[in-house]
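Weekly sync, protein design subgroup
Attendees: M.S., D.O., the rotation student, P.L. (late)

Item 1: inverse folding check
M.S. brought a backbone from last month's batch and wanted to see whether the design step gives back something sensible before we order anything. D.O. pointed out we never logged the input encoding, so this time it goes straight into the notes. Structure tokens as presented (316 positions):
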């Protein structure tokens, strides 16, 4: 059985309690009581703090569901989900958003009791990956905090700790061999980005806006859900004209060289590349993202006597 997620407990508390009383272990912290209710049409709220707590919790849940949806899209693209699994996952997303819309403050009539609990479950089931697709959301392990302008914020240190733990687990599941060096370099680069970005985004209280951290959370979550079998990718290399020489270089990895119009299995990662063919300008590219790619790499070569600059290659 999956552990009960903090978000589930929080939503249950907010939906069931006539007044908001914050337990010490709550994942939501309302730092001040608003002088006026956020929305006077919320009939079952008892005071401004309860309304604002509901809004923050549900906004975090909505963002959480959207983040999980984007992770499913990447999983489908890189082949870790079948079309049937993807459709099942998106059905869960639709149910989660339906729950959010019906529970959010501002409705003329809001559900209560068993109906509210069922709608809450629709949200938590999806973000907790209780259907076995993906992995429980990052936000399941990090408190949400109300910002000065009413925005959802996260403690930077707690978020960094969660992201680090997920990257360490993803790295530990990779074989310690030369072939998987591109994947390890990619995961190490993600960890460095989190180390640099989160302190830079933090305010004086050490919190970061949820909206500013979605990109790094998304990348970490995709890497965290990747199995051993999903790191290899069959790269189909095509050039116009044919038979150019391609060299791929990843950090801490030996260069890979082969001719175009072939297929080559490599390990996902970020690569610099060089494409050469006699009579044509050499193409030099950096940071080719083969982590989220489907695997078609196309290069349009420019003749040496052309005034046009070399064109970057395209990855799909």
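Designed sequence read out in the meeting:
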């Amino acid at each position: 059985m999956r552990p009960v997620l903090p978000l589930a407990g929080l939503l249950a508390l907010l939906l069931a309690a006539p007044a908001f009383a914050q337990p010490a272990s709550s994942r939501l912290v309302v730092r001040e009581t608003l002088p006026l209710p956020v929305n006077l049409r919320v009939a079952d709220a008892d005071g401004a703090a309860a309304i604002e707590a509901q809004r923050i919790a549900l906004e975090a849940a909505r963002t959480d569901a959207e983040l999980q949806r984007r992770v499913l899209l990447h999983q489908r693209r890189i082949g870790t989900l079948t079309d049937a699994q993807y459709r099942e996952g998106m059905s869960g997303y639709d149910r989660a958003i339906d729950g959010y819309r019906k529970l959010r403050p501002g409705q003329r009539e809001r559900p209560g009791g068993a109906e509210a609990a069922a709608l809450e479950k629709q949200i938590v089931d999806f973000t907790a990956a209780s259907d076995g697709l993906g992995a429980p959301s990052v936000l399941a392990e990090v408190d949400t905090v109300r910002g000065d302008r009413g925005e959802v914020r996260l403690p930077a240190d707690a978020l960094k700790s969660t992201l680090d733990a997920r990257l360490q687990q993803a790295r530990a599941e990779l074989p310690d061999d030369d072939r998987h060096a591109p994947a390890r370099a990619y995961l190490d680069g993600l960890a460095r980005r989190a180390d640099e970005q989160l302190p830079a985004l933090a305010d004086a209280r050490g919190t970061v806006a949820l909206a500013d951290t979605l990109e790094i959370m998304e990348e970490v979550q995709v890497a965290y859900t990747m199995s051993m079998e999903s790191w290899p990718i069959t790269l189909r290399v095509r050039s116009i004209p044919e038979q150019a020489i391609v060299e791929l270089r990843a950090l801490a990895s030996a260069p890979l060289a082969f001719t175009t119009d072939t297929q080559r299995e490599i390990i996902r990662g970020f690569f610099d590349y060089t494409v050469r063919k006699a009579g044509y300008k050499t193409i030099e590219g950096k940071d080719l993202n083969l982590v989220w790619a489907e695997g078609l790499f196309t290069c349009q070569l420019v003749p040496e006597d052309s005034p046009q600059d070399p064109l970057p290659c395209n990855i799909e």
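Discussion: Helices lie at 6-16, 48-78, 83-103, 113-127, 156-172, 181-201, 210-225. Residues 262 and 307 are 29 Å apart (CA to CA).
Action: P.L. to compare against the previous round before Friday.
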